[in-house]
Specification:
Order of helices and strands of chain A: EEEEEEEEEEE
Radius of gyration of chain A: 13 Å
Strand content of chain B: over 45%
Helix content of chain B: under 10%
Distance between the termini of chain A: 30 Å
Largest sheet of chain B: 6 strands, mixed
Number of strands of chain B: 11
Shape of chain B: globular
Oligomer: heterodimer
Largest sheet of chain A: 7 strands, mixed
Shape of chain A: globular
Radius of gyration of chain B: 13 Å
Structural class of chain A: mainly beta
Strand content of chain A: over 45%
Structural class of chain B: mainly beta
Amino acid sequence: DTGVSQDPRHKITKRGQNVTFRCDPISEHNRLYWYRQTLGQGPEFLTYFQNEAQLEKSRLLSDRFSAERPKGSFSTLEIQRTEQGDSAMYLCAGRTEPNYGYTFGSGTRLTVV
Amino acid sequence: ELKVEQNPLFLSMQEGKNYTIYCNYSTTSDRLYWYRQDPGKSLESLFVLLSNGAVKQEGRLMASLDTKARLSTLHITAAVHDLSATYFCAVEPDSNYQLIWGAGTKLIIKP
């Protein structure tokens, strides 16, 4: 148990459907990050929250992607009108202060068929 | 463009041997991270290196950081099968808080 929970662990969806993932960090994680990882690659940054404010968004994050972190606690990542290229592992990470490491959750593996 | 390059990308070695994984990066940064990933699993933090000359050791793994050369190394001493995994380095540029990742080094240690 890393202290960062992600749900669901696996999601299979048909192309064109919407999906939503959830991330629950520990209460001390005022910083929360979403990354995407495809097979054989390193993770790619998607977006970053400090408390409830979304401070950075990657150019990778098209208009079909939206993320929220209401009240600075859990976070959701929604993908609308999924495409096969969205198939990947979606990783959430929490962090307290800049001099500490990132704690990753177990990830949500998305397969778009 | 910010780049993080790991070398080698694939390494097969025998138990008991020593080896080093290299991580070069193109941006100024004082923060470098090493992670381990087992197949189908998430990322496990190994080391956080926060300053030039930082050296950290945990068991058979030792990591170091040279910010002037923009180089970090992960040294494996007397490898054992349980260390088989993919190892990633990631750099946090001075200008922001996102991580830029290497492509990973897949390490296979044969008994």
